[in-house]
Amino acid sequence: MSVSRHLTSDGKELTISIHGKFDFGVVNDFRRAYSSLGDEKPRVYIDLRETEYLDSSALGMLLNMRKAINEHVESIHIINCRAEVRNILDISRFDKLFIID
Question: Which Gene3D superfamilies match (predicted)?
């Protein structure tokens, strides 16, 4: 599977990792990954360490996720971006909407 999730046992951190291509082909898996947050207001980390490709549908999925969960989480971070992926996020001004580490 190209999308995996890990919620810490205390429910305070949710990490969603995207492996390979982040495009429309993973839309359902990505939605499932953030659909169940638990009772805590976790910090959410989108780990793009293994993301080789990101297209406009991925940007849309990130925006939809933010809209759906923003009030139910402490913060949303995009982490471990490759240079090419970071460039797309910067051009799209996602640094104004997400914490990019």
Answer: STAS domain
